[in-house]
Amino acid sequence: MQLLPRSARRAIRRRRLVRDERMVPPAPFVVGHGRSGTTLLRLMLDAHPELVIPPETQFLPQLIQVSKEPGATADGVCDVLVGHRRWEDFGIEADEIRARWRTIEPFDLREGVRIFYGLYADRFDKPRWGDKSPGYGWNMPPIDKLLPEARFIHLIRDGRDVTLSLLAKHDDAPPPAQQAKHWIKRVKQTRKQGTRVRHYMEMHYEDLLEDPEKQLRRVCEFIDLEFDERMLRYHESAAERISEIKRDMKGGQELTQDRSRGEVSGERRVEIHKLTSEPPRKDRIGKWRREMDPGDLAEFESVAGPMLTELG
Fold it and tell me: pTM for the whole thing?
């Protein structure tokens, strides 16, 4: 059969994307710098009776890359998925997803990824799913191309409080000036990528703590989901949801929340998120004013001052 001209193939692809966007419910993808409240927002959304957000996936960029290699097969791509260091967090049997992926003829990663999220949602008897992987802020365009239903929510927190949190938790944390450069780069890059995807919104962590209902209603409107009061009571189920990751995680290339590429204990993974079991605490806003060392503060602001001003 003669291959269609490139323009015709692009037109067909655009029609398919429009069709998919109409048929598949919007899926929130929460992104942002580490220690910026992404887990808090994840649990708030997850408390909705129609929406489930799994623990961080982090494997989509790798799957996208592998699926483009010559001779890529469903089994080969699935090997990458079930071999990922986070696979065991999701409670899905490898044989089950392999069998489901083999039914896709010809194999299409988009359908395969949707099957993964669907199997996870089925565990909780919920019809809709989303994702919370902060690092996807670096990879929004390819994910947007893969999943036209993706709705990216960029959660931004004052970099001084981000740095204070990291300095308090890690003895080997980089100096404030270096952290300021990384925070600026992360915010700028994510905002830039937000201009290259179809659905992107920003939210400040401080606003989420000040008025959770207002901000959650914004998100619900963005993802075409009716607001539910149970989202404000997320903390009642947070410990149970976080316990899902209470297992030792093997090392890998991915940089984890505690800045380690080595093995991370299950206790450590859960401890990082212990505050999510409490209602929103406004005293988390502007902690740098009360607790940050003046020298560290001056060092951070000397680098990040313009970005702090830009973000208000």
Answer: 0.90
